[in-house]
Amino acid sequence: MFEQEILELLPHRPPMLLINEIVSLSQSQSEALVALKDQPPFSSGSEAVPAWVGLEYMGQTAALIAGYQQREGYCEPHLGFLLGCRNYTTNVSQFELGVPLLISAEQATVVGESLATFKCTIANFETRTHYAQALLSVFRQPLREITSQV
Fold this sequence. Notes:
Elements: H1 4-9, E1 21-25, E2 29-34, E3 48-50, H2 54-71, E4 78-90, E5 94-96, E6 101-111, E7 115-124, E8 130-142, H3 143-149
Antiparallel strand pairs: 1-2, 2-6, 3-5, 4-8, 6-7, 7-8
């Protein structure tokens, strides 16, 4: 199950849409819920999802900010590409099914129209126990540049 607003703000679609619900959203911050129920992508029939999938949870939560900014007119429509990650640290090797996750992203810096960084964390939604953190770097290419190249 995915909130309609997520489908409006993100280009991702199942099975690669991994976040389920928006907890909070603003021009520079977002929080999302990952439900981890009913054999989500990457669980491979096991009772857990590998912790490295957390990078994609973080990326999609950061992308909510861009979708919000575009919808509210703060920036031009653009494509976003995850360039890299610094310091992805986690104290778990996997995320257990049935344990909802709170993914947080905060826009840290924006350089011109083309580069943004986001501070991201993953925690247990119910207990707020910290699981992971990272700094994501995202390349943003305005759609007007793409269409002018065609």
